[in-house]
Structure formats: C-alpha cells, structure tokens
C-alpha cells in the first residue's frame, strides 16, 4: 500500500495543484465553478494528513456500500492520518464545496494537536458524513473563507495562529452539528441498537463464544457496516450508554440466568460467558447490578 509522507507528494498523486504552504492546502469552488478534479480512481493509499471537505455533488449519485446518499445540501467528511483511502471511477467528482488538507506536523506545539485526536468523527466512515442544514453550511463556509484569506495572503508570524484558531472553531461547530444529527436521527439510533443486540444474539447462539471469546466492538461494528466510533457515539447520544456498556449489560442478563442454576459455580458462569478471569466478571456484575454474583444468587434463593 502506498503511503504519502508529505502533502505535496499526496497532492501530486491526486493530480491537484501544489500547495501554497508545505503543510496546508485549501481548494474552494468559486461562483459557478467546481472543485479541482482529482484522479478518477486509486488503489488503497494512506497519508500523514488530516482532510476536511464539504461535498456538494451537482451531477450524478454517490454510493457508499449499498446506500445512496444525497449530498446536494452539503456534507462534511473528515479523514485522519493513516486512514485507508480508496475510490474508483464510479464516484462522481463534479462537485462544489471546499477541501482542506493539513499535514499532522502543522499542529505540533499547539493545543489543537491534542484536541483533534478527541474528535471521534475523524474515525467515521464516509457514509457517516455530517449532513449540514443551509444555516450550518453558511457558518462552516464563513470559517473556511477566513482560513483561505490567511492562506492566500502573504503569511506572517500571526497567520498560523489565526488558521489554527479557525480550524479549532470549525471542529467545535462540527461536533455540535453532529450531536444535532444524532438527535434528529432517533429512528437510526434505535435501529442501530436493535442491530447491535441482534448481532450479539446471533453470535452467542452460534457457539462462537466458546471458540473465540467475547466479540470485540470492532467486530460487531464491521458486521453492521458502520465504524466502531460512529456506532458508539450514536448509541451514547441516544441511550446514554456506550457500546461497551451495552455489551456488558447483555452479558449480565445472560449471567443472571446461569447464576440461578445451583450446579454452576461463579467461575463456571464467568468462563461460559467468555470472561478470562472470574474476578473481572464479578467486578463487572457488581458495577452493573450493585451486588456481587454471590449476593445475587443468595437473594434469589431467599425469594424461592
């Protein structure tokens, strides 16, 4: 897999104009014009750059996986360094909007270097893009215009600080708008929770638990065709619980039934559910139920 260490090498590969700054590039569509068209297709590649782009397709449809997405109102897509990129000529590149590429070294020595790693949407898939309302789109475009002014003008000692500040503000707005999107898509959130629980049920009923142990969140997300981070963030906003917490609750429900079988020890129940250490199982159980597995069994016997 080809990896591009510099922004210039990456843009040259895309057949796009060279950047004005060695670690920063900005492309925007002007008036009736369109964004520069990169190469039509590419095998898997990676870069050392962050990418933030607003896509407004004006001709044709864009498909990711089995779903068709309407990007005519504008969608923000975020790509992190080392993220695998691949596309083919079925993607329509005739589009408006903007594209910002920033080498990760541009942030070194700034507060944003640490903050940017906390924004989960850089780990989302393309089909989990942020769909903007017209008002939100105007707010984002105003920030990008300010960044472009600093980028195009003769840069001085203040330019980098101003650009970093504007990028930080843009990411904060994106975080806010994503929360709005999660809340506006409650049906999707409920559907994801149902799919998540179904994946767990299928996994446990298949007997894979004894062969492979407790499934990872990444494995479940892959089977659901969503990114691990997007799944967790969606469920967290809607239910107040992360995917790990939902998995633990599912395991605890199974444990309750097994604990009521008098011929099984606490350790046997833990091993059957895929816990490598019974002590860890007991800690998780107590954290979720407020009492230990032993106490739970005793209380049930008292109520018989």
UniProtKB/TrEMBL annotation:
One Pfam family of this chain: HTH_18
Protein keywords: DNA-binding, Transcription, Transcription regulation
Domain of life per record: Bacteria
InterPro entries: Homeodomain-like_sf, HTH_AraC, Tscrpt_reg_AraC-type_HTH
UniProt cross-references to PROSITE patterns, sorted A to Z: HTH_ARAC_FAMILY_2
Key word DNA-binding present: yes
Boundaries of every HTH araC/xylS-type domain copy: 198-299
PANTHER family (UniProt xref): ARAC-FAMILY TRANSCRIPTIONAL REGULATOR, TRANSCRIPTIONAL REGULATORY PROTEIN
The protein, known as: Helix-turn-helix transcriptional regulator
Organism: Olleya sediminilitoris
């Amino acid at each position: 897999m080809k990896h591009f260490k510099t922004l210039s090498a990456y843009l040259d590969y895309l057949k796009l104009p060279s950047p004005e700054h060695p670690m920063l590039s900005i492309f925007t569509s002007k008036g009736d014009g369109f964004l520069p068209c990169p190469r039509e297709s590419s095998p898997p590649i990676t870069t050392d750059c962050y990418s933030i782009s607003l896509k407004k397709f004006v001709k044709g449809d864009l498909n990711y996986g089995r779903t068709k997405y309407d990007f005519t109102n504008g969608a923000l897509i975020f790509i992190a360094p080392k993220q695998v990129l691949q596309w083919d000529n079925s993607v329509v590149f005739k589009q408006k909007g903007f594209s910002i590429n920033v080498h990760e070294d541009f942030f070194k020595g700034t507060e944003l270097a640490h903050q940017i790693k906390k924004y989960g949407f850089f780990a989302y898939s393309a089909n989990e893009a942020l769909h903007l309302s017209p008002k939100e789109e105007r707010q984002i475009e105003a920030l990008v215009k300010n960044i472009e002014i600093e980028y195009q003008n003769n840069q001085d000692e203040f330019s980098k600080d101003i650009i970093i500040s504007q990028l930080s503000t843009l990411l904060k707005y994106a975080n806010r708008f994503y929360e709005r999107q999660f809340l506006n898509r409650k049906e999707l959130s409920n559907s994801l929770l149902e799919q998540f629980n179904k994946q767990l049920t299928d996994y446990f009923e298949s007997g894979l638990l004894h062969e492979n142990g407790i499934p990872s969140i990444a494995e479940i997300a892959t089977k659901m065709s969503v990114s691990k981070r997007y799944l967790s963030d969606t469920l967290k906003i809607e239910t107040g619980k992360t995917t790990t917490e939902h998995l633990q609750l599912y395991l605890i429900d199974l444990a309750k039934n097994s604990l009521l079988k008098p011929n099984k020890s606490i350790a046997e129940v833990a091993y059957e559910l895929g816990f490598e250490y019974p002590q860890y199982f007991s800690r998780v159980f107590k954290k979720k139920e407020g009492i230990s597995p032993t106490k739970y069994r005793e209380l049930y016997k008292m109520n018989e």
